[in-house]
Design a protein that fits this description.
Arc Repressor Mutant, subunit A, 3-stranded antiparallel sheet, Four Helix Bundle (Hemerythrin (Met), subunit A), mainly alpha, 2 domains, 3% strand
Length: 223
């Protein structure tokens, strides 16, 4: 028996299990399945994933290091809470970064990405005209992905994606009520981009994030 291989296989299986749980729980939090402040008990999660409490404990610590989960002393872990001030800071940063992404995408537009943006604009406008909510939502998601990839800056794209993931639950609080409005705001960014107007595309992209953010904050203050 090759002991080194045995231990290596065991370590890989252990890491694979932890990674799977980590990804699943992280995505569930970002989707809003677990609300800010909601408890994440080790026994409950262990039962949900069909594992012992040890991998759950490790995953929660990893999520804690990312600021997604809080683990108060002698209490169960919980989904991190954000103050209004923290949310304002997140919105401010997202607005600037997405504006920069739109500027890069405009200046680095090529034949391939132009076709993709034109197709997306056509599909989104058609879905909006026919009140096809699911298709509108899909077009909104494609807009963010295409804008990020078309900027040709992997570091900015990765950072924006990470920031969008971390705040998805926040914006989802009102997203269901404004899918069409969001698309209309995305559409004018695309139009400016296709027209080659970098500054206008950047401003419109930033303004969109700030507008959604202000609605989020307004909703929280009234709840």
């Amino acid at each position: 028996m090759n002991k080194n291989k045995s231990w290596s296989d065991l370590g890989q299986k252990h890491q694979s299990l932890n990674d799977s749980i980590y990804i699943a729980l992280r995505q569930a939090i970002f989707r809003g399945d677990y609300k800010p402040g909601e408890r994440l008990t080790e026994p409950g999660l262990a039962k949900l994933f069909g594992v012992s409490r040890n991998p759950i404990r490790e995953v929660l610590r990893k999520l804690q290091s990312e600021g997604i989960v809080e683990i108060p002393p002698r209490k169960s872990a919980r989904v991190a809470l954000f103050t209004s001030e923290e949310i304002e800071e997140i919105i401010e940063l997202r607005a600037e970064l997405e504006g920069l992404g739109a500027k890069f995408a405009t200046s680095r537009l090529n034949e391939e990405t132009e076709k993709l943006f034109r197709k997306l604009l056509e599909d989104g406008n058609k879905a909006a005209a026919n009140n096809q909510k699911t298709k509108i939502k899909n077009c909104n998601q494609k807009y963010h992905s295409l804008l990020a990839s078309s900027g040709k800056n992997r570091y900015l794209a990765d950072y924006v994606l990470n920031l969008r993931e971390r705040t998805l639950w926040l914006f989802e609080e009102i997203a269901g009520d404004r899918h069409e409005e969001s698309w209309n705001e995305h559409a004018v960014v695309i139009e400016a981009l296709l027209a080659g107007d970098e500054e206008k595309a950047a401003k419109l992209a930033s303004d969109h994030v700030r507008k959604v953010g202000s609605e989020v904050l307004k909703g929280r203050s009234s709840s």
